[in-house]
From TrEMBL:
Gene3D superfamilies found in the cross-reference section: P-loop containing nucleotide triphosphate hydrolases
TM segment ranges: none
Protein name from the UniProt record: ABC transporter ATP-binding protein
Keywords of this entry: ATP-binding, Nucleotide-binding, Transport
Amino acid sequence: MRPDHLDETPFVKLSGVHKTYEAETGNVRALDPVSFGIDRGHIVSVVGPSGCGKSTLLRILAGIDPATGGQVVIDGQEISGPVPNMGIVFQRDLLLDWRNVLDNVMLPAELARANMDETRSRAVALLSELGVGDFLNRLPFELSGGMRQRAAIARALLMRPSLLLLDEPFSALDAMTRDQMNVILQRLQQHERVTTLLITHSIAEAVFLSDRVVVMSARPGRVLDVIDIDLPTPRPLSIREEPAFAAIARRIRLLFEKEGVLAA
């Protein structure tokens, strides 16, 4: 698929988005023009080497960091600032140490002055689905890293966001816990159907979770390819051993090898 591929009517559409940071020692070009779309209810992963502008792209999409040029359109509206009705999960869970798990998840509802009874019921249901239902009254320091990230995901989903942004949320977890979180996120996506952008360094994670993978070059980041993942869902972890999965992962690795990102 060509790097400049765009859906006809995507929920999220990036067109020629680029970013240059100004500095006293000289301007730094972080992103060359980037274009792709995310269909409503789909997961798109952006995979690329460190420093390629993946997180910059996410911040631009969130309306936190303005682009130098190009256009970002969400649900037909061009964005020019922070996006309402959006959930974000970062590498660190950012839970508040003095609030228990349930109170941490309820924070967006408090800030939005939402109906507390309804949102509390949803918070409990989300935490239960994520396997943290027995730890509602525990403080964050009493939880493992994986459990803390589950709580962070529940918090991001509490207010039923139209867009979920995940910035390498599992990068600090051990391999087995990361696999477990991939399965949990996939199952949750089957229920919630929230439009999602996932930033990751992991080729296997990107292919396993996504409807589409955007492959980025080294800085300044540009789109090397946009690959539709035509694999059945839901996907068991064992699918990573299947020839079709391996072929997609190999295609992505070859792109990085040609770029000199990976040793050939």
